[in-house]
Specification:
single chain, about 220 residues, alpha+beta, seven-stranded antiparallel β-sheet, extended
Amino acid sequence: HTLRQGRMADAEKDPAADAEGEGEDVEAEAQVEFKPLIELPPEIDHKSGEEDEDVIFKMRTKMFRFVEASKEWKERGTGDVRFLRHKTSEKVRVLMRAEKTLRVRANHPLAPSLELKPHAGSDRAFTYFTPDWSEDPETGVVEQRNELFAFRFANAENSGKFREAFEKIQKGDFTGLDVIKQDAEDAEKAGEKKEEKKADWREKAGEEEEEEEKAD
């Protein structure tokens, strides 16, 4: 009889009290700290070296360097050639990074002594000889080398904007560069739209050709 009463007493316990006790256990478990198996290193602030400079001109280009040993031009990549002006010293340098890898392909002062020449009589490309501090194409090592570079642009209008900005900066004349920069960007956008229209036309022509073949 006593055993039966004990069982009944257990069955009549306050369910709220049980729930409260269970909640305390869950909360206690939730407060357990789990340390990661691998400690992540602190976030690294990667700097490009361009933080103290303003872009005063840029134009998409395909760049080449002349290899003296083999007497031939080697492509160094496609991307924006930019003129960067230091915020304090106001010195300007030419910087070109390959658009996919962002590796530095040209890095040198835009000096008054640089002699800009049309490349092989073309109205779309210019060359000049300069001391340069960019990555060696073979080893990736950055060191000074004397280079003969060529920059080829999409059309004569783009190359003309490049030459205009280049020669104004050589003379120390920075007036109107914002206008030249904007004109250059507008010219690039217009060229991109033209290429898109050509691609759309080629795609449409291809679809029509396929339909004609199916009809035959």
